[in-house]
Design goal:
heterotrimer; A mainly alpha (about 350); B mainly alpha (about 270); C alpha/beta (about 550); A: about 350 residues; mainly alpha; about 0% strand; B: about 270 residues; MetI-like fold
């Protein structure tokens, strides 16, 4: 996937020789990882600008929205001063960034509560949801992907292919309500809404979130499985797999010894990419199940245009997403034999 | 294209799309009742008069489904066309001009893609006024990043081919190279991508409406109808599942056609030895 | 080591009436089965080498894989017998064939670079099959591998196996793959074009290494290639194949010196074109002075000066990476040089393409190596050639159509091809259309960038003849870029030899290809296989320097 993202440059163009090039040649792996981390930090910084500017530059007078249509100009001016909206944009951005870096996302306009405290509370819940879904979905998806490859072009493969195509097309909320209909209304095996409290033990929490986790697993698994299948098939088509066959190596050993080390990097990539997708899937699922996580918090804030909350949540979501993508790239750099054993 | 080469699954997909398009196009003639006409009690069960029953306000679900097809399809189609035009034009310009323009556009695109689409949409929708044009615009701009990435990769691959170089050596203008040499060779993957983006747009607008940030009531759209009727689920009233299923069927249909298109291209490639 | 047998015993390998089929998927038609190999028979004694030769599509690789009971890419063996020591291996079943593969029959592919697993050390891969089949202990296999690395002339045989595939050169990988095949002491090795992907000077070293290894280990071999002069150096017998059928089968001496079939005779006489060098080379159509160029900051050309005689052919010869194609890019304006000037008809050309006038562009045309990628697959032959006519001469409608048909006649194809797409043409036909596209501009100079190196020898000969004929008719000048000295000998009037971005030799053919030679030209000249038995030994004995990229 990362290979696809990279744009092709002019053929045969070599990088400039110099200190950097020498470093790259000596430590191809270390330098690439360092570059990737640097890129991640740049992206994070740039996305903070984008998130801040995305809200502040766009039209719409927030003080007026906040106070309603009938507000007097004086009241609007007072409010602007209170939230610091009368300051220049750049000043406001750096104030905001400075505070964010110190763990302070400001205060909600709607409730006046500390955004940081709320996020701290809810982030754990969201991660629990996504984490539980990931633990189930990843092995299942990779396993199904392998199964589809083993039975390639046979009935099992076609069936898995068709079902996963359908699953990719299902909206999260539809899956969620279908599950509620079946497992809460028709066969009451679990409760709705899936609200967790701090006082609950982990086991109680896990019991409560069965349905939201199941929803996330169903939604993410199809995509992950399809990509895993494609990645493995790609490796299986390599000339070195034919070599293994012509050397009289058995199918199982060929897969374990020859395909697996090369399929690892693309599969890691697939998994990380889909975990990043899970982060977004959480938003809808939390709303459906009235689950006290980041997603629900953010959607509620968007509805009432509670900008500090929106900015804070947006930044946290973006940071997790960037971090996951970065991890994926670094892991595939680590899995690349060409970089692990430089010339 | 040969009629016989269309696979059975692709036929199913095309049928699904056709039904949705017909419902959208002829909504006022097909719908038995008005879009916002209250015809009975909330969540009245299905009957001969109301084949799908009534919704949370006592409006005919079938009629709203038909009108909803109109809104859902219209918004996703507009957003996709817009995002496609934007993405394809910018990516081809970047691929052909190279240099600073390419650098700038590609980096900006990477940055936009570093924030999850839904999150980005939530942030922007928090600030912008809520109306249809804004909604379509936001969806189009965010989605165009995906089109840009594909278009840039496609055009980049084609632009370094010898026949493009031959055209440049001949002295052809950039526009000729883009429209006569590059575009025809990128057409099939782009058409397939259009389908994928359309399916995604249907899901996306439905999700936004479901979250209450998309199409605003009382206008009917499938995502919003799920939201309207979701409270009935817990009482065993399946009104919310009907529009949900419609969204699923439409996106599955589109994906089936795309899948067939993509398979067809790959086998064509194989047949040509490259 | 395989023991020598008396001739009256069962031969090591006997192939009887072998038939191989596949499914064809022609565009726009229903898939249908086709026969690739139509009943081929041969025998191979222990310790002997049989060369399978033919053009692409002859079925030689498909036949070559049959002793492994393997069909590549959906190909299946539909009939006949493949007897290994009298046992039909096609009837052995899965476990039986697996016991043979990698133990008794081994395979060396064209692209060792792709055939080695990038994730494992070379040494481990070389001994893997031997260990898996339980033929030797690990330490024995290691020792065997080191011995083979030595025989094959690999550097530091003791530690060579510790390297990963991407850490060694293409020529070394090809030898390592030969070592992998030899490790289990197989009775038979199949070499599938093992030197085709290598540079000419490297090819000879690998060929010599393979020959030495075959002699020292006494294994039998099937040697598959499209190049008769290569197989003449290593084989005892040769089978000539065409369209899945045997054309001629006999000893090397018989095939090379006294062939029966017309087709074999053509193959033996390939490259027999001789173009007498023009006496007067004073006219100058293109002149490049002190050209230096670089990709980014990497310099690739260093102070190159040469000129093209008017109405004649300058051949630029060199290996990959020598800068010969870069020179063409500078001449056409695709790559502005960092220093030096290009003059055309005495008039200085601007370095960059976009500043050149349409008339300047018209006079200088380019033909590419890969005709496949040089033509837009979505345009018909008529559109491809017609656009040039419209662009430069403004011809439209029937005038345009007539002109295109006239050009199609000139390339000996005819107007029937007007509405065809490139995918429907053979390799040779595509290259002819590319020539027609260049002719359509009515140029003075055509730069031909290896236009025949992707083609089969006989087809390539046809293209060369066409180019020479067109030169005579239209007084065209050519810059002919090639790695093949034989082609240079055949068609050039003057010759430029490039090596590592520098011009090492330049002058009329009679002088450039006559002694005294510089070391590199000497190596290059001695690297072209000749259609002569025993040539390999002679040339190795007389070489002054070894090639760089082996």
């Amino acid at each position: 996937m990362t290979e696809n993202q990279r744009v092709t440059s002019a053929p045969g163009k070599a990088p400039a020789p110099g200190l950097l090039a020498v470093f790259r040649a000596r430590f191809p792996m270390g330098s690439r990882i360092a570059e990737r981390i640097l890129l991640g930090i740049c992206l994070l910084f740039a996305s903070s600008v984008l998130i801040f500017a995305g809200i502040e530059i766009l039209p719409g007078d927030f003080a007026e929205t906040y106070l309603g249509q009938s507000a007097t100009p004086q009241a609007i001016a007072n409010l602007s001063a209170k939230f610091g909206l009368d300051q220049p944009l750049v000043t406001r951005y750096f104030d905001w960034l400075f505070n964010v870096l110190h763990g302070d996302f400001g205060h909600s306009w709607a409730s006046g509560q500390s955004v940081s405290a709320q996020i701290a509370d809810r982030l754990g819940n969201s991660l629990l949801l996504a984490g539980a879904a990931a633990i189930i979905a990843v092995p299942l998806a990779v396993g199904l992907g392998l199964l589809a490859v083993l039975y390639r072009d046979r009935l099992v493969d076609r069936l898995i292919n068709l079902l996963s195509l359908a699953a990719v097309s299902l909206p999260e909320f539809f899956v969620a309500y279908l599950l509620i209909m079946v497992f809460v209304v028709q066969n009451p095996v679990t409760a709705f809404p899936a609200t967790v409290y701090d006082s609950m033990s982990l086991l109680e929490k896990l019991q409560t979130i069965i349905l939201p986790v199941a929803t996330l697993v169903l939604v993410v698994i199809a995509h992950m499985m399809r990509m895993t299948r494609a990645a493995i098939i790609n490796v299986m088509a390599s000339a070195y797999m034919e070599t293994a066959e012509l050397k009289g190596i058995g199918a199982l050993r060929a897969i374990v010894k020859h395909a697996a080390p090369n399929a690892l990097a693309p599969i890691i990539n697939v998994v990380a990419l889909n975990l990043a997708y899970l982060i977004v899937g959480v938003v809808v699922v939390e709303v459906v199940f009235v689950y006290p996580g980041m997603g629900q918090y953010m959607v509620d804030a968007v509805t009432v245009r509670d900008l500090p909350v929106v900015q804070g949540c947006g930044l946290v979501f973006a940071a997790i997403y960037i971090l996951l993508n970065m991890t994926a790239d670094i892991l595939s750099i680590l899995a690349n034999p060409r970089l692990r054993h430089p010339r | 294209m040969n009629i016989r080469s269309v696979s059975p699954t692709a036929w199913i997909g095309m049928t699904g799309i056709a039904i949705a398009v017909i419902a959208a196009a002829f909504a006022p003639w097909l719908a038995p009742y008005g879009e916002n006409e209250v015809v009975g009690a909330p969540w009245e069960a299905a009957s001969h008069a109301f084949p799908l029953g009534l919704d949370n306000l006592g409006r005919d679900l079938l009629s709203r489904m038909i009108y909803g097809a109109r809104m859902t399809l219209f918004v996703s189609f507009c957003a996709t066309v817009l995002s496609f035009s934007l993405g394809v034009v910018l990516s081809f310009v970047a691929a052909v001009t190279r240099g600073v323009v390419d650098m700038g556009l590609s980096r900006l695109n990477d940055l936009m893609m570093s924030i999850p689409t839904l999150i980005f949409a939530l942030i922007v929708l928090a600030a912008l006024p809520q109306n249809l044009a804004v909604l379509i615009g936001v969806m189009a701009v965010l989605d165009s990043t995906r089109v840009f990435r594909l278009g840039r990769a496609l055009a980049g691959d084609i632009a370094v081919m010898d026949f493009v170089e031959a055209a440049r050596l001949r002295g052809e203008k950039t526009l000729w190279i883009v429209f006569r040499e590059i575009l025809p060779n990128a057409m099939t993957p782009l058409v397939a991508e259009f389908g994928l983006r359309l399916a995604f747009a249907v899901l996306f607008i439905s999700t936004l409406s479901f979250l209450g940030l998309g199409i605003q009531p009382p206008t009917a759209d499938w995502g919003g109808m799920v939201k309207d009727n979701k409270d009935g689920i817990i009482f065993g009233i399946s009104a919310a599942l009907v529009p949900g299923a419609a969204i699923a069927v439409l996106t599955i249909s589109i994906n089936l056609v795309v899948d067939w298109l993509l398979n067809r291209t790959s086998s064509l490639k194989g047949g040509r030895g490259g | 080591m395989a023991e020598l047998r008396k001739p009256d015993e069962t031969p090591l390998l006997e192939v009887r009436n072998l038939k191989i089929g596949a499914m064809a998927y022609p565009p726009g038609e229903r898939p249908h089965p086709i026969e690739i190999v139509k009943g081929v028979s041969f025998t191979l004694e222990s310790g002997k080498v049989l060369g399978l030769i033919g053009e692409s599509g002859a079925g030689k690789s498909t036949i070559g894989l049959s002793p492994l009971a393997y069909g590549r890419g959906g190909v299946t063996i539909t009939g006949g017998e493949v007897l290994l020591d009298g046992v039909d291996i096609l009837k052995l079943g899965k476990a039986g064939t697996r016991a043979i593969r990698g133990a008794r029959v081994c395979y060396v592919s064209q692209s060792a670079a792709a055939s080695f697993n990038p994730a494992h050390k070379l040494g481990d891969q070389v001994i893997e099959a031997t260990l898996r089949h339980g033929l030797m202990s690990r330490s024995e296999a290691r020792a065997r591998a080191i011995e083979l690395f030595g025989i094959l002339g690999l550097p530091e045989p003791e530690t060579f196996g510790e390297r990963y595939p991407h850490q060694v050169s293409g020529g070394q990988l090809q030898r390592a793959m030969t070592a992998m095949a030899l490790c289990s002491r197989p009775e038979l090795i199949i070499f599938d074009e093992p030197t085709t992907a290598l540079d000419v000077t490297t090819q000879i070293d690998v060929l010599a290494a393979i020959k030495t290894a075959i002699l020292k280990t006494g294994t039998a071999a099937l040697y598959i290639t499209h190049d008769l002069s290569v197989v003449a150096q290593v084989a005892d017998d040769i089978m000539v194949l065409r369209n899945g059928e045997t054309v001629e089968y006999g000893s090397v001496e018989k095939i090379i010196e006294n062939p029966d079939a017309d087709y074999t005779r053509e193959l033996v006489n390939v490259r027999a074109i001789r173009n007498e060098e023009a006496g007067d080379q004073s006219g100058r159509v293109l002149e490049m002075k002190n050209i230096s160029a670089s990709y980014g900051t990497t310099p690739v050309l260093f102070d190159v000066s040469l000129h093209v005689p008017k109405g004649q052919t300058l051949a630029i010869v060199g290996e990959s990476g020598s800068g010969k194609s870069t020179l063409a890019r500078v001449a056409t304006g695709l790559l502005p040089p960092t220093a030096g000037s290009v003059r055309f008809d005495g008039q200085e050309l601007t370095p960059a393409l976009k500043n050149r006038s349409r008339e300047q562009l018209r006079k200088l045309q380019l033909i590419y190596q890969m005709a496949d990628t040089a033509m837009n697959p979505r345009q018909t032959v008529g559109a491809i050639i017609g656009r040039v006519v419209t662009f430069y001469d403004g011809l439209r409608g029937s005038a345009r159509r007539n002109r295109v048909n006239e050009l199609l006649e000139q390339i000996e194809m005819g107007s029937g091809f007007y509405d065809r797409y490139p995918a429907e043409l053979s390799g040779g036909q595509k290259q002819r259309v590319a020539i027609a596209r260049a002719l359509a501009a009515d140029p003075e100079l055509i730069i031909c960038d290896e236009p025949t190196s992707a083609l089969d020898p006989l087809v390539a000969d046809g293209i060369l003849k066409l180019l020479l004929q067109l030169q005579r008719e239209k007084q065209l000048s050519y810059v002919f870029i090639t790695h093949d000295i034989a082609i240079v000998r055949a068609i050039a009037d003057s010759v430029a030899v490039m090596h590592q971005g520098k011009l090492v030799r330049f002058g009329p053919k009679s002088q450039a290809l006559a002694p005294p030679f510089d070391d590199y030209t000497d190596l290059l000249l001695k690297s072209v296989p000749e259609m002569k038995i025993g040539w390999l030994e002679d040339v190795l004995a007389s070489r002054r320097i070894s090639s760089a990229g082996n």
